[in-house]
Amino acid sequence: MLVVTNTLKIKEGHAEAIAQRFGASNGVQDMPGFVRMEVWHGSPKDGAEELKICTVWENEEAFKGWTSSDAFRQSHRGAGGNEAILGATLDKYELLVSRTPGE
């Protein structure tokens, strides 16, 4: 299992609008090996907000399939032109331990 986090630093007051575009159908939900996506919103700090877009994949190959797909290119078209986005970082994590209630 692989979790990929795309952390976006957003001008304060703009995070909710940007988060909404991740709720639209953009093809990621149809990709082989895609498990789920969550968008997390951090508290405003120093005039900026943070969004963490977390996607969960069965494996690295599934994620690479997404990033090389036409759907990925279409969904990211024009994303660099949004002046409310102050910066972004991408991180990958491999799941080592998982617990659920009652375990």
From TrEMBL:
The organism's place on the tree of life at top rank: Bacteria
Pfam families (alphabetical): ABM
Chain ranges of the ABM domain: 2-95
Gene3D superfamilies: 3.30.70.100
PANTHER family: HEME OXYGENASE (STAPHYLOBILIN-PRODUCING) 1, SIGNAL TRANSDUCTION PROTEIN TRAP
Name listed for the protein in its UniProt record: ABM domain-containing protein
Organism: Paenibacillus riograndensis SBR5
Species lineage: Bacteria, Bacillati, Bacillota, Bacilli, Bacillales
